[in-house]
Amino acid sequence: MKDSTTLNAMQVDLNELVEEYLAARDKSGENKQATQLNRIRTKLDSLYWKNVEWLLREKIDPIRETLDFSDDERLIIDMGLLDYRLIEADGPALRQRLLDEISTPGPTGHFYLSEWLEDRYHKFCLTERVNENATSGIMPALGASERQAREKILSKLAPLFKRLPGITPQVAEFMISGQLADQLVDASIALLQSNDRHAFVHRNRLRKLRQQIIRKARTLVSDSATQKLFDVLEDLYAQQWKDTYKVAQSATADPSSSALMRSFDLRMKEKREEYLISEIHFVKTLFPLGALAGGIARTSVVMTDDTPRVTKTDTRHCLELARACDRELIEDPVVLIAPYKGRGFFEWDRDSLVVALHPVDTQADCVANAFANFRMLTDSLQKDGTLRAAYENSFCGKVFQKEFQSDYRLWLTQCGQGRIGGLDSQHISFFMKHVGPNLSEGLIVPQELHGLSVSALELVAKRMEKQVSTASDDPLLRYRLAAVFWVQDKKDDAIRHLAIAAKNAPANSPVMLSLALSLRMTGQEERAQNVFKACRTRAATTIWSLYAAVANKQRHPAASAPTTGEATDES
Fold first, then answer.
1. Which of 65, 203, 283, 519 lies at 20 to 30 Å from 153 by C-alpha?
2. How far is CA 516 from CA 420, 485, 496, 522, 568, in A?
C-alpha cells in the first residue's frame, strides 16, 4: 500500500516550488534572477531525490527481482521531469517525445537511470543468491585431481580477477574459490529438472557474470602461457558440467530442494531497500563530477527546458566511433545516460560510462570524455601508468591528468571522422602508436586472437575454414580467417582471403586497409599504394582515412625486393 501521506507532502512542496520558480524566472535583473533560480533549482533537485527514493522503496519486493516502473515514473527518474510547468518553451507533444526517446532500443548495457538501477538491483540479488546458495542442492561433480588443478589455476589467475572494473571483492572471491562455477553448474542442472522462468533467468545471469569476468581478465594478458590457463579452466568447467549431468541423471533430485529454489522472506526487503537507497545516494554524488568535467560550476537534475538530449542512438554511434579509434576499449560497456548537465566520465567500481543527458558540447564530445576517463583509470589501475609515462615523455610540459582527456576527445571526434586537422602531426603519431588500431602486425588482428597458443590457433583456423566453405561470401568471416593465417605466418593464405573479403565488401575500410598493409609487408608496394588510395577515398569520414593517408605517404623497405619479404610495418 502506498504511503499517501508522504506522496501528498511531496506534491505540496512541488507546487510551492514550481510557483516560486516561475515567478523568479519572469523577474527582471539577470544576476539577481540567476541567483534566485539556482537556489530554487537546488530545492527542486532535493525533491527529485526524495521522489526517486520513495519510488524505489515502493517497487522493492522480497521475492521478485524487478522494479517495474510506469512510464510517468521513468520520466521522473530518467528525465528529471518533476512538473511540465517547469519546462520553458515546452515543445509539442513533449511527453510522447520523451517516452519515445527512453523506449527506443539501444545496444545491450546502454541504460537510462531507472534501467541502470534495475540492472544494479539484479546484480545485487544475484550476489545475494550466490552467497545464500553456498551449499547446493546437487554437489557439482569434479574429481579430486581436477578440483586440485582448478584451484591451482584459479590461484594463479586471482590477481587478474581482483583488478577488474565492476567486479566487487566478494564476486572476485566467488570466482577465485570456484564457487561461481559450481553454482552455475548447479543452476543449469536445476533448470533441466524444472522449467521455471526464475531459474532460467538466474542461470543466465550467473553464466553472463562468469563470462564477463573471464573475458575482462583475458584482455589484461597477451602471453600465450596465461591464455592457455584460461583455456584449461574452461575445459575443466566443461568436464564438470558433463560429470554433474551424469550424476543428476542417476539421482532422484527434487528441484524444489535446490538452493536455487529457496524463497526469500520479508527480511530480504530491508536488505534490498538498503542497497538501492545507497546506490541512489552514490549516484547523487556522481553528477557534480560530470559538471566539473564539463567546465561548469553546478549542475541540476530537474528538467527545465526542452533542448536536445543524449539518446541511446547517440551512445550507439559514439561507441562504434570509439571502438574504431581505440584498440583497448571494453567490449560491452555499461553506459548510463543520467539526468544532469556536463560531460561523461567512467565509474570504476560499477563499471559504468556515465554520460550526461544534457551535454555541455556535442553528444560525441560528452561520450568521448567518458571513454577518455576510462582509459586514464585503466592505465592507472591495470597498466601501471604506461600510457601516462608515454604521453608526458612525448609532450614535455603537458600533464597527463589535466590534458589527455582534451586530446583524446579530439582524437575521437575529429580524427575519428577523418578530420586530420583536429590534432597536429605529433599528437596524431602518438595516438596512432598508443591508442588507435594497432597496425604493427601488418593487419588489424582481433583482440581475442592475441596470445593464443599454436594448437589453439590451429583449432580456430580449422573451424573458420569449415565455416568459410559454407559461407564463402561472408567478408567478416574471411577477414577473421585471414587474421588467423597472418598470426600463423601463412602470409599468402592471409592475403588471398583478405582480397576476397575486400572484393565482397569494398566499403569495409578495416578490411581494405589490412589488405594494403599486408601487401606492403610482403613487398607488393605498387598494389598496396593503389589499395591505400582506394581506402582513403571510400573512408573519407572515418579514422581509416587518416590511417590510409599516413600509410600512403610511406614506402616500405620491402618494396624494392623482387620477392615476398618479412619486415615490420612502420605505419
1. 203
2. 20, 16, 12, 10, 14
